[in-house]
Amino acid sequence: MTSDIPFPTDVPNCQEALKEERKQTSCAVGLSVEELPIISRVSSFQKLQRVLAWCLRFISNAKLTSTERKFGALRTKELENGLVCCIKQVQVTNFASELKCLQSGKRLPANSRILNLYPFIDND
Hints:
By secondary structure, the protein is mostly helical. It has 5 helices and no strands.
């Protein structure tokens, strides 16, 4: 059985053929943190605080009878509750693993960004 295809006689030097080739590649990684849609829709922090306070009042009023509901301008305590709501949401969004450690009584990882702030869980 002979073949009509000739066997190559000039084999190149393996070292030259397999010369190391390096390519430089770049990779960009983005961390997506899901936040409340309302945060990106409001133009200022004070406005965000007030919007959240109004939402909390609405929720509170929905649970009350018509004679117990609050009307009129927001009270200082309601604005404070709006601020606390905003802060808690941002903390839950950005520090979920740290919150989980603190709630379970474990120590924060050594590479935690907030370790040197001595975080704790308060009663609110």
